[in-house]
Specification:
The complex is a heterotrimer of chains A (329), B (384) and C (289).
Chain A (H helix, E strand, L loop, with lengths): L5 H17 L1 H4 L3 H25 L7 H18 L4 H23 L4 H21 L1 H4 L5 E2 L5 E2 L2 E2 L3 H24 L1 H11 L1 H6 L4 H27 L1 E2 L6 H14 L4 H11 L2 H4 L6 H16 L7 H11 L13
Antiparallel strand pairs in A: 1-4, 2-3
Chain B lengths: L1 H17 L3 E9 L6 H20 L3 E3 L2 E11 L4 H14 L4 E3 L4 H13 L3 E3 L15 E2 L5 H15 L4 E7 L2 H16 L3 E7 L7 H8 L4 E3 L5 H13 L6 E3 L5 H8 L1 H4 L3 E4 L6 H14 L5 H20 L5 H10 L3 E3 L2 E6 L1 H4 L4 E3 L2 E7 L2 E8 L6
Parallel strand pairs in B: 1-3, 1-4, 4-5, 5-6, 7-8, 7-9, 9-10, 10-11
Antiparallel strand pairs in B: 2-3, 11-15, 12-13, 13-14, 15-16
Helix pairs in contact in B: 2-12, 3-4, 5-6, 8-9, 12-13
Chain C lengths: L1 H32 L6 H18 L4 H22 L8 H23 L4 E2 L7 E4 L2 E4 H23 L1 H11 L1 H6 L4 H23 L4 E2 L5 H14 L4 H21 L2 H18 L13
Antiparallel strand pairs in C: 1-4, 2-3
Classes of the chains: A mainly alpha (329), B alpha/beta (384), C mainly alpha (289).
């Protein structure tokens, strides 16, 4: 690949992928693939939310918990208060974000590990409360008959109807994340993740930066959770456990944590994986675990970094310089 | 995503050349991994066993066609959303019309609107009362649930033992919650005050809760628990010096319970016996199954196998496998049908307004010297 | 009432001791290697399974089964440390993510090898010791005694031996320890294997009291997390205090209120500790981030 050609190639590739995504319902042999496409869109939003938090140097193991909060809030608002789902989804995002802001304000003052442990416990407690408050949440059986999203009086019930909406939401999130990364705040997040003390000494309020990133990321998770409630038209606690947070994290790590492209690649690669392995007993989990560990060992910057690494390797090879993949500090 | 379009095409090309007889695909949507896998595997093995037997005989004769049975089984990982994905795949991609499962209540509730709209006949194992209703003409349940057996069983026990206050301990999950609900009604019906305590499913130390509740209990009810948990509860309650009666109104727990609690602690525990292994047809099935699959034939396996016996008979009676409406009607009308668990029919009109609940005898047992002894035989009306 | 109170305290301390074993191992691995090991509870699970196989299925003597179960798990731990965790030295984030992958593989690997149905292990002891109306089941006393011996030996190891002092030095500051000539590449695997061996011991001790299945590890892991946040990350005395505290909270809330409240209460205690005493009850103050 010659250097000057790269930008147009990238653009062309992006356009082709976008076209593929947009025309998926017509290209796929049956609606099951449209359904998977919708699931991928929802996953992408969740993974991007996690990516924003990771961009500021934190890892939220309670991510599914915020999706759960969002899902139940929107479902209950539409079922009990008669709110239109679109409004409920916005409210779900705001509430999840508010919760994250409060929790983040308290725990992000501490070192990263504490954040991980407390966010993890938050996720557990969220599931527990959803199970316990059965008068409100329907307990373990969850809630059924949640209203579908309706736009200008048109209900998005069928799979081909909901998919464009999910895709639009996912693309909007993608664009938002991309813009966020390029904004001055994006630089602050990156600096915080790189070296907190250094960032602090150059005048960045790292605490605030991380709280904001956590708030935005968890808000997106809340919106995604609400969308899934109105798509599946049911919600139950078992879909938001700790292991869901782990699978979002796997997608993020396997795809790559640096830019937005990694999240997309991770979701596209790993959303169909459980489907391919659905007929096998438990093998899918072992493969998921192995994929996670292997990608950390051999492609720590994710699949998205491979083209760049190849390029670098090619450039440096003639100079006999060895390039070591950086897993170090 | 592109790769996906190639795969089915390739598969279709492959199968077109080899398939000579017609095939009937039976879907399995159950939990095949994780903690619930014991039950899901029981269901999947029932389907596999049935398919093997039919295929060995040359296929299933329906009308003037003969069908080879093919199984498509998918794991729901005990998550309702995965059950939805698996069901979509069975319906949309595999074009399946008959499904073994779903297994869990949340999975069943999450998928039933869709399967009934698509006229897909499902044999669910879910204990939730929401699994059956007149709006769900294609949903059948070939398992006896707490809603069926709790009432008659407790009425019988209530006459036998002096009970005023019973304390129950159930896991805080779908099984525990739905079992607790039917127990509350059944105990109320016999004038006993029942108080239920829930605990988190991963919990293994019950001593604190037991300390509290046993002080004021005439009897301990632990019916919604897994066999192992029930065993732990019996053991820990006896260790705390509790000597009153213990009821396990639910599930087929005896062998595990005795293993965990030990013979001494388990002595005298009242259990629900879903299956009478002294029945010749049941004993013959279990022997045959375990020899073939090297896997214990559990309740889910036997119930599902009975349900499948009825389903395939209904297809033959209907003379079609494609018109599921007709098959469902024929299935519903079967009565006194010989299954491996005895003569079966359908009941449920009183509870669910529809007769899609299997009607099989069940039993009250008491553990004596490590073995459950049958002390009463019941149907949905009463125990004798 | 007094008897119930006393019984509640005893119950809490008994279950607390197991939490202590879990939390000490977890906090040691973190303090020395800086790895948040999400797979910690899975070593508990493997220890329990191995014990079930040696003691329950093959009838080996109790003490021998304990030793074999711990050694077997330790060997697995050493292998995992060499192959995976040693590559993430100094990278807390990736080490933690890797531990999640390990946890997935271990749990589902166990499911593959040992199957989903829970196993029960014959009791080591039966009957109860009754002191003034307070009941101590012997089966649990065995666990407590085992746990106390383990904690005692560990205390001797870290205070009296050279390797113990070296481990403490690394936990204090690995750079300075390096300058002093402590061989970190030896200390790390030793600490990791020691930490997960404690988890394996907890699993093996609990196997006869409870039952054994591939997914029993998550609950103790969660407990260990909560305990170390409360007690102070990396602090062994903190893990002891936190473990006993959580045991007592569970026991009291379970006895007098309800089991679910116990879990929620624990989370609130965590938030309160983080707010009021961020270094944990007995933790050192962390360097300002």
């Amino acid at each position: 690949m010659m250097r000057p050609a790269r930008a147009p190639v990238k653009l062309l590739g992006g356009a082709a992928c976008l076209a593929l995504a947009v025309f998926l319902p017509w290209l796929a042999p049956n609606q099951f693939y449209t359904h998977l496409g919708t699931v991928a869109c929802l996953n992408l939003m969740l993974v991007l939310g996690l990516a924003i938090i990771a961009r500021a140097g934190q890892l939220s193991m309670g991510h599914a918990g915020f999706a759960l909060v969002g899902g139940y809030v929107s479902a209950l608002l539409s079922m009990n208060a008669g709110w239109p789902p679109l409004l409920g989804i916005v409210a779900a995002g705001l509430l999840s974000a508010g919760l994250a802001a409060a929790l983040g304000w308290i725990i992000l003052r501490l070192r990263g590990v504490y954040f991980v442990l407390v966010a993890f416990s938050f996720g557990q407690i969220a599931v527990l409360l959803a199970l316990d408050m059965s008068d409100l949440t329907g307990g373990a059986n969850g809630l059924i008959g949640i209203a579908p999203v309706s736009i200008f009086g048109h209900s998005l019930v069928s799979k081909p109807d909901f998919y464009p909406f999910a895709l639009a939401c996912a693309l909007a999130t993608l664009l938002f994340t991309w813009l966020l990364y390029r904004s001055p705040f994006g630089d602050m997040m990156a600096a915080t993740a790189e070296n907190q003390r250094l960032a602090e000494s150059s005048g960045i309020d790292t605490h605030l930066t991380q709280v904001i990133a956590f708030t935005i990321g968890s808000g997106i998770a809340g919106i995604a959770g609400a969308l899934s409630a109105h798509y599946f038209r049911f919600i139950s606690p078992d879909s938001f456990t700790f292991w869901e947070s782990v699978s979002y994290l796997t997608m993020l790590v396997v795809g790559g944590r640096v830019g937005v492209l990694g999240s997309v690649i991770g979701v596209v690669v790993l959303t169909p994986l459980p489907e391919m392995l659905r007929a096998t007993q438990g093998l899918q989990h072992i493969i998921y675990g192995a994929v996670l560990v292997l990608s950390l060992l051999f492609v720590p910057d994710g699949l998205a970094s491979i083209p760049q690494r190849l390029r670098k390797a090619r450039q440096t090879a003639p100079h006999n310089a060895s390039l070591r993949a950086g897993t170090g500090p | 995503m592109l790769r996906f379009k190639v795969l089915p095409a390739l598969a279709a090309a492959l199968f077109a050349s080899t398939a000579s007889a017609e095939t009937l695909t039976l879907g399995v949507n159950a939990t095949l991994s994780g903690a619930g896998a014991v039950f899901g595997e029981g269901m999947a093995f029932a389907a596999a066993n049935m398919a093997d037997q039919i295929n060995a005989k040359g296929g299933l004769k329906v009308g003037d066609k003969t069908y080879k049975i093919e199984i498509k089984k998918y794991d729901d990982r005990y998550r309702a959303q995965d059950a939805v994905n698996a069901m979509e795949r069975l319906i949309l991609e595999d074009k399946v019309k008959y499904v073994v499962g779903p297994m869990g209540s949340a999975s069943t509730v999450a998928t039933q609107a869709r399967t009934n709209a698509e006229k897909v006949v499902t044999l669910t194992m879910a204990f939730t009362p929401k699994a059956l209703s007149p709006q769900l003409p294609y949903s059948f349940r070939p398992a006896i649930t707490t809603a069926e057996f709790t009432g008659p069983q407790l009425a019988w026990l209530g006459k036998k033992l002096p009970l005023k206050r019973v304390r129950a301990l159930e896991p805080n999950d779908e099984t525990g919650q739905s079992v607790a609900n039917s127990q509350k009604e059944a105990y109320k019906a016999i004038g006993v005050d029942l108080q239920v305590d829930f605990f988190e499913r991963e919990r293994v130390d019950f001593v604190p809760i037991l300390t509290r509740i046993l002080a004021s209990a005439d009897a301990l009810e632990i019916g919604g628990n897994s066999p192992t948990t029930a065993g732990l509860l019996v053991k820990q309650a006896r260790e705390l010096g509790y000597s009153g009666p213990i009821f396990v109104t639910g599930g087929d727990v005896t062998s595990e319970l005795v293993k965990v609690a030990g013979k001494q602690a388990a002595e005298g525990v009242y259990v629900h016996l879903p299956i009478d292994i002294s029945r010749p047809e049941t004993a013959a099935y279990i022997k045959d199954f375990e020899a073939k699959f090297k896997y214990p034939a559990n309740g889910h396996n036997l119930f599902m196998y009975s349900g499948l016996q009825m389903l395939f008979a209904a297809m033959q009676k209907a003379g079609t496998v494609n018109d599921t409406t007709k098959v469902a009607k024929e299935l519903e009308s079967l009565s006194n049908f010989p299954t491996v668990l005895g003569p079966a029919g359908w009941t449920g009109r009183n509870l669910y307004n529809t007769n899609h609940q299997i009607d099989l005898p069940f039993y009250v047992g008491q553990i004596r010297d490590g073995v459950a002894t049958k002390i009463a035989t019941c149907n949905v009306e009463a125990c004798r | 009432m007094e008897i119930i109170l006393a019984q509640t305290v005893v119950n809490g301390l008994m279950v607390g001791m197991i939490y202590v074993l879990m939390a000490i191992g977890f906090t040691m691995v973190f303090g020395i290697m800086r790895i948040v090991n999400f797979a910690h509870g899975d070593f508990y699970m493997v220890g329990a399974f191995l014990f079930a196989i040696f003691y329950g299925s093959n009838g080996a003597p109790f003490i021998l089964s304990l030793i074999l179960a711990v050694l077997g798990t330790a060997a697995l731990g050493l292998f995992i440390e060499r192959v995976v965790f040693s590559r993430f030295r100094g990278n807390e984030l990736n080490g933690m993510i890797a531990s999640l992958g390990i946890a997935l593989m271990m749990e589902n690997g166990a499911l593959f090898i040992w199957g989903p149905s829970p196993r029960s292990v014959p009791p080591v002891a039966s009957g109860v010791l009754s002191v003034a109306g307070v009941v101590f089941p012997w089966s649990r006393l065995v666990v407590i005694i085992g746990a106390l011996i383990a904690v005692g030996l560990l205390y001797l190891l870290i205070t009296r031996t050279q390797i113990g002092r070296a481990m403490r030095a690394v936990a204090q500051d690995s750079e300075i320890a390096l300058v002093q000539g402590i061989r970190v590449e030896v200390i790390f695997p030793v600490a990791f294997v020691l930490g997960i061996s404690l988890a394996a011991l907890a699993g093996a001790l609990m196997a006869p009291v409870l039952s054994v299945s591939p997914f029993i590890g998550l609950a103790p892991t969660l407990k260990a997390f909560i305990i170390v946040v409360i007690g102070g990350l990396g602090s062994v005395p903190g893990a002891v205090a936190g473990g006993l505290l959580i045991g007592l909270i569970e026991s009291f809330a379970g006895t007098f209120v309800s089991a679910s409240i116990a879990e929620i209460l624990q989370f609130l205690v965590v938030i309160a500790v983080v707010l009021l005493r961020p270094q944990g009850l007995l933790g050192r103050k962390e360097r300002e981030a």
